Amino acid sequence: MDTFAGARGRRAPPVNLAGANSPIPIATDLPTVRVVTYNIHTCVGVDRRYDPARIVAVLRGIDADIACLQEVDARRRIERHADQWAYLSEATGCQVVLGGGDRRGRFDNAILTRFPVLAARTLDLTVAGYEPRGAIDADLLIGDRVLRVIATHFGLRAGERRLQTNRLMTALSEASTANRREADAVLLMGDLNEWRGRSGAIRAFDRHLGPSPAARTFPSWMPVLALDRIYADGPAVLRDVSVYRTPLARLASDHLPLVGSLSWAPHDHRRRERRQPIRSRGRIVPG
């Protein structure tokens, strides 16, 4: 795959929203990475108007280095482009990682990134009797480190989400293969559709990856539910998580974007405290 220029160096505030009580030293050899998860609602706004340009304007305003998108339309053509993936990639100047292009469903996932993509695969999270769902599992190269990025969109029913959580945790616990480098850190982002607070999928990910900030992102015009989440694991510290609130963002989709900054611990910190692969510690109990 083609590679793109790396992220601009950004300074994150000295606050660790992932829950640490003391400051963690930050590596100076790698930039702070701006990330966003955003359900774009197939580019149909709350005014029921189809307008991909509004989504692009919101993404440009955020200026993320890694964007995990949900509900990218898998069927609709845009001018000379075959699909929304190609349009969003060209309009933002980022490389796109596709969600597998499962045409059985109405929409799919996508990752937009400025970093080189080492490997990518699609994880099938579809539960029989429900709409097709999945996740993108991609390895990005940031400096000399590999960041494993998982972008997903869970289902609407509690039992469906429980099975999808189990499948994703199994994938996270798999050992690296011969043609895939071991990841230095994991970034998981997406619309988990968990409206019951820290229950179900949220409880499982909190236990294995550490708690995520519960920022309200849905519905965009009056957000009351924290459906969208960002998790970071390994020597990567999630900071400065916030909801991107602008008049255009409130209009362009029924979700607001959730934005954060990812910083890195120094090399010696990584070697000393590098975590083992995530292992399931028992059955996940639904909330």
Order of helices and strands: EHEHEEEEEHEHEEHEH
CATH topology: Deoxyribonuclease I, Chain A
The domain tally reads: 1
- The oligomerization state is single chain
Average per-residue pLDDT, rounded, comes to 81
Strand order of the largest sheet: 3-4-2-1-11-10
Spatial separation of the terminal alpha carbons: 41 Å
Low-confidence spans: 1-22, 268-287
CATH class descriptor name: Alpha Beta
Strand content: 25-35%
Structural class: alpha+beta
Taking all Cα atoms into account, the compactness measure Rg is 18 Å
Biggest beta sheet attributes: 6 strands, mixed
Individual helix count: 6
- Fraction in helix: 10-25%
Within CATH, the superfamily carries the name: Endonuclease/exonuclease/phosphatase
Return the CATH architecture. Answer: 4-Layer Sandwich
Instruction: Work out the number of β strands.
Output: 11
Description:
The protein has 287 residues and is an alpha+beta fold. It contains six helices and eleven strands. The strands form two sheets. The protein has a six-stranded mixed sheet, with helices on one face. A five-stranded mixed sheet has the order 5-6-7-8-9, covered by helices on one side. Strand 3 (95-98) and strand 4 form a beta hairpin. Helix 1 (52-62) crosses helix 2. It is globular and about 45 Å long. Residues 1-22 and 268-287 have low confidence and may be disordered.
